[in-house]
Amino acid sequence: MDRLEAMRILLAAVDTGSLSAASRQLHIPLATVSRRVSELEEHLRARLLLRGTRKLTLTDAGRDYVASCRRILEDLVEAERTATGEYRAPQGELIISAPLVIGRTHVVPVLVEFLQAYPEIRARIQLSDRVSNMLEEQVDVAIRLGELPDSDIIATRVGLISRVLCASPGYLASHGAPEKPHDLVSHDCITYEGYSAADRWEFRFDRTSQLIQVASRLTVNLAEAAVIAAIAGAGIARVLSDQIAEPLKSGALVRLLQAFEPTPMPASLVYPRQRHVPLKLRAFLDFATPRLRQRLGYESA
């Protein structure tokens, strides 16, 4: 049994809440995930997990062992970084995670500039609207949207992103423009499965927020698909402001119900809390933070 692999699988199961979720995240068959955890329990002669119907629960022994596993894997990463000289000069591979549109539009151009300035650094960027598990996926730094839960990560705000409603001039000419959020019940709405409640949209009324049920005729699983459908006249979409900057400028889309938009979400550069920040990461943070703030209109931060 490869104990380090088993530890990583165990941590993935604990962090995602189930063996099946760990299987999907790690791209390992579910039977392998279950077998590795069982082998680890047999090796330790202790039950680590209680496998319920809804979620996993750690035993007392499991809680202590998981905490130790995290320290061991963090020490291993730090030992490898020390051996490769990452604490002596900015060098090595930098792994970055970012949402699709922000990553493509803003992070990639900044990253290209950064690599030109630091020839000893290589980079891998993962563009996905899925929130990565930074420790398990060995991500050095990520862009996260929204308020961040209390956790062992360090965050630096680089922008504010609004959730906005938009539609094409052609759709509005045929159907009219909504004057208030409740009018959306009589409109064709384009919903996005990436949100927890795709057909319940948040709006701000004075100082309170309220979820409004909308009438969805088209549901997509990619935010860019919602933008394309809105431009084509399929209905009203709710997307992030950075996703429609160009269509708004060109007139392909019109922003709606701006007075009712919820409070903008922060966009932050985040990285795991660690005893020593590798120089490659420190160099990227110092280089990228002011440039991303400028690109996202957050220069006064």
Automatic annotation (TrEMBL):
Keywords per UniProt: DNA-binding, Transcription, Transcription regulation
Stored Pfam families: HTH_1, LysR_substrate
Domain of life (superkingdom): Bacteria
Keyword field contains DNA-binding: yes
Domain HTH lysR-type: 1-59
Classification via InterPro entries: LysR-type_TF_proteobact-type, LysR_HTH_N, LysR_subst-bd, WH-like_DNA-bd_sf, WH_DNA-bd_sf
Family, as annotated: Belongs to the LysR transcriptional regulatory family.
Protein name per the record: LysR family transcriptional regulator
Organism per entry: Dyella flava
Organism lineage: Bacteria, Pseudomonadati, Pseudomonadota, Gammaproteobacteria, Lysobacterales
